[in-house]
Each structure stands twice: as structure tokens, then as C-alpha cells.
Amino acid sequence: MKKIFKLRDEKKHEDRVLESVKNDIRKYVKREKKKPLPDKATMYWDFDCKIGASLSDAKVVTYEELVKALDAVKATGVIECYVEVLAKAVEKPLKEAPEVTSLEE
Fold it and tell me: Residue 15: which domain range?
């Protein structure tokens, strides 16, 4: 999803517009997570995110930081905001096997 969101609407309160933008982002992520993975046992969906006042000002953030970054962009007073969220299938990191210690008597 690459989209420019309007952060102001004369018919709606600014907080409701911001909540609508956050909801659209969450709906997109939820929809992408439902798509089948190439190898479900060893992969998961990860998201490359960018956010800024415009495409040229967009900064790379993690998905967990996206909502806070959206609040920060709104606090600057801009009228619209560029948001980019791209899904990618990523290999799960391997878990370390617990060390087996034998009891010597």
C-alpha cells in the first residue's frame, strides 16, 4: 500500500480522521497476513514501512513504530501524509537448541 492520506477534513474532527487512517493501515496489514505463505512452517509476514509528510520526506520505520510516527507527523501540522506499507515473506529465525547437560554421579 502506497498512499497519501488527508489528515484534515472540514466535515470531521481531526482526531477521527487520524483514527480512520490508522484503521485503514491496520485493515491492510490484517488482509495481507491472511494471504498464504510460500512455506508456512518456516516463514512469516513482515512489513517494510515508510512514513512522512511527502514521498521525498518519508522515513523508514518498523510496523510497530508506524502509529507513533503517524502521530508525530500529524503533530507537525501537515495537511496530508504519505504512508507506504509493503508486505514481504521472511524466513523465521532459527531457535537455538537448548543445551543438554548430563548429570554425572
Answer: 2-91
Q: Is 101 within a domain?
A: no
Assigned domain for 100 exists: no
Strand runs labelled E in 1-105: 2-6, 43-52, 59-61, 80-91
pTM of the model: 0.82
Which residue in the block uniquely carries the three cell numbers 517494510? 48
Cell of 3: 498512499
| Residue pLDDT, tens place only, 47-67 | 999 999 999 999 999 999 999
Q: Average per-residue pLDDT in the chain?
A: 92
Give domain status of residue 53, yes or no. Answer: yes
